[in-house]
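[#protein-structures] MJ: dropping Iron-containing alcohol dehydrogenase here for a structure pass
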Amino acid sequence: MSALDSTQHDSTNIRGFYAYTDTLKGVFYGPGSVNTALPKLLDTLNGTKALIVTGKSLHDKTDVVKKVENVLRERGAYGTTFWEIGEHAPVAGIRKCIQALKECGADIVVSVGGGSPVDAAKAVIYFLQKDSGGSFLPHVAIPTTLSAAEYTIGAGYTEDNGHKVAVSDQRLAPAGIILDAELTLATPERLWLSTGMRAMDHAVENLYRPLVIPPMKVLCYQALADLFKYLPLSKADPSNLVYRQKLQVASWMSLWPVKFEKYSALGISHALGHKLGARYHIPHGITSCLTLAPTVALKAETASQEDKEWLAGALFHLRQPSTGSVEGDVLQLSKIIDKLVVDLGLKSTLAQYKVPREDLPDIAERAMDGRSDPTFPKVVQLLEGIYE
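AK: finished. structure tokens for Iron-containing alcohol dehydrogenase:
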């Protein structure tokens, strides 16, 4: 069967609902776009004083934050910069950030960096609103990785006990997003490429995520095609802004902003990543490198026929020949994802991150909200398979 013969993978699910998120006013993209987009968003959102939320490394080791500060200063809208946001957004940093915002009197939040600053900014806005009972402050996200946290209505952060928790509200979606490839040049290679695999995790798991509409799944197919193409190219030529901008747009397509009528979780790979990340200090991009390919292989065995067909359909968009069966095509997708992880130099194991082997059943249990799910033993086996 040729790659063009995809009739057996046609989906029959033609019922659903779609709406934009309530708050998003615009996504601006292109190299250098921060210089023009940020002033436009300040005008649109009536922002007069901004708090920048970022991480220590980006603040101390690059000029990225200074560039954003300068744009705000030129508009007379710079308040202060809070740069104590750690990996997985520890709640202690969020508390300090709330105090910094109150002290400077900011009326708009600008996050700069990866998923942790973006999620921390959303958490700050959430807790401020809960305390005051007022409106949600507007948030402009300027991502420097490919993790795609800026497209969601949720904020994940880490409690003092090391457990990752989340809050969500439609009004937490950023009001503006700026995808400026120039600001990603300072992002370390491993972080850039691994968060690209995080975007791939979004694109793949959206193919079987409940309530995702077919047009969004087609965007995920294109996201997969671009991630497979441009991640190796970006690794080979890290200063190429075209490749970086293509990858930022692919990240956007992988988690297209959408208003769900009710909450819809992504899937096993993400659930495992959330439980592994904060507790064992594994970056979220790396958790996707660990869990995505084996999760797809598991889906070849356990998914519904509809979900298998959506996964199998990815091969057509990746210019890969069909194996002749839906299950075979899903397994083939798993194999080429794993090969990409290897080719990008991102292959690792749970043992390398010092995850105790005896913790694996507990990780699976927390990821699946208990052991009653019939696939629980298979998820434990999945973790065993990536242990060493």
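MJ: nice. The chain has two domains: 26-184, 189-385.
AK: one more thing. Strands lie at 26-29, 50-53, 78-82, 108-113, 139-143, 154-158, 164-168, 176-179.
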